[in-house]
Write a structure and sequence with these properties.
The protein is mainly alpha-helical and 154 residues long. It has six helices and two strands.
């Protein structure tokens, strides 16, 4: 069963697997990150998330300006309530993302074994990276870029 799944992924990402491992994994990471961004785009109420973010910024500004302890407690409580609401909203896409990533990561380990990239400078105190650290390093900027391009609020 797993072999069939791995063969399907190998067929899907075949062209990327023929490239230098760092570039190949960059392409696979871009695909994974794009799919995750789509999950968040369509499973979150983007308008509600933007509204909560704007309201939170407004409350933070009021919090900076207030000197009254009672008002501070009220504003802080309201901010925690909005954070809780936002966390509940992100739960569904987070679970789907987790399932998606858990289903692909074992294949990534097999597809890109060993050290796949050596850089001429240090990141995180290292110059050589295996599949996992390289995935983390490339997925952060990809995620930010895809979210901006697709207008995804988190």
């Amino acid at each position: 069963m797993i072999e069939i799944y791995y063969n399907a992924l190998n067929a899907m990402f075949g062209p990327a697997l023929g490239l230098h491992p760092a570039l190949g994994e960059l392409i696979v990471a871009a695909f994974i990150t794009f799919i995750i961004t789509i999950f968040y785009k369509y499973l979150l109420d983007q308008n509600k998330v933007k509204e909560l973010k704007d309201k939170t910024k407004e409350l933070q500004q009021k919090l900076k300006e207030t000197k009254d302890k009672e008002e501070t407690n009220k504003l802080t409580s309201e901010m925690f309530g909005m954070s809780n609401q936002q966390m509940k909203m992100t739960f569904k896409p987070m679970i789907l993302t987790l399932i998606f990533v858990i289903s692909i990561f074992p294949w990534l380990k097999v597809a890109f074994p060993g050290q796949i990239v050596t850089l001429p400078f240090e990141i995180l105190g290292r110059t050589s990276f295996g599949w996992f650290l390289w995935y983390i390093i490339v997925s952060f900027p990809l995620s930010i870029g895809f979210r901006k391009l697709m207008g995804v609020n988190l």
